[in-house]
Model the fold of this input.
Amino acid sequence: MSANDLPACNAFFNGMAAVFLTAGFIFIRRKNRVAHQRCMIAAVCSSILFLVGYLTYHFGFHGLTKFQNPAWFRPIYLALLLTHTVLAVAIVPLILVTLTRALRERFDAHRKIARWTWPLWMYVSVTGVIIYLLLYQIFPQK
Done:
């Protein structure tokens, strides 16, 4: 594996976080707390692996990737990237608070913040995969 493989790995970890978030949501709706807990811990681990890979790639090897072409799609890409980036920063403390409340078995407080955390985290995970596809597969940037 080389540094050039990291973007695909990062997209994989983002995608896995979305899968675990979806499964965790389904399990808690079915009152299966154990499966929910396992899925949410897996989502946290997937997101951590994404973050390590992202930081390694962009700050250790490659620098920032700029979307240049096609020019007509650039404003759309930048709007998606802006919402993704802002929410990716905002979601970190929300995840930590949500996880802490669950681990301390403060489930009423956990549910209150999870109603915000889950959809934002899902958005960040899914848009992370979309950004990868746009930058490296659909419109590869040189």
Remarks:
- The chain has one domain: 3-138.
- Residues 3-138 form a domain with the Four Helix Bundle (Hemerythrin (Met), subunit A) fold (CATH 1.20.120.80).
- The two ends are 21 Å apart (CA to CA).
- The chain has a mean pLDDT of 95.
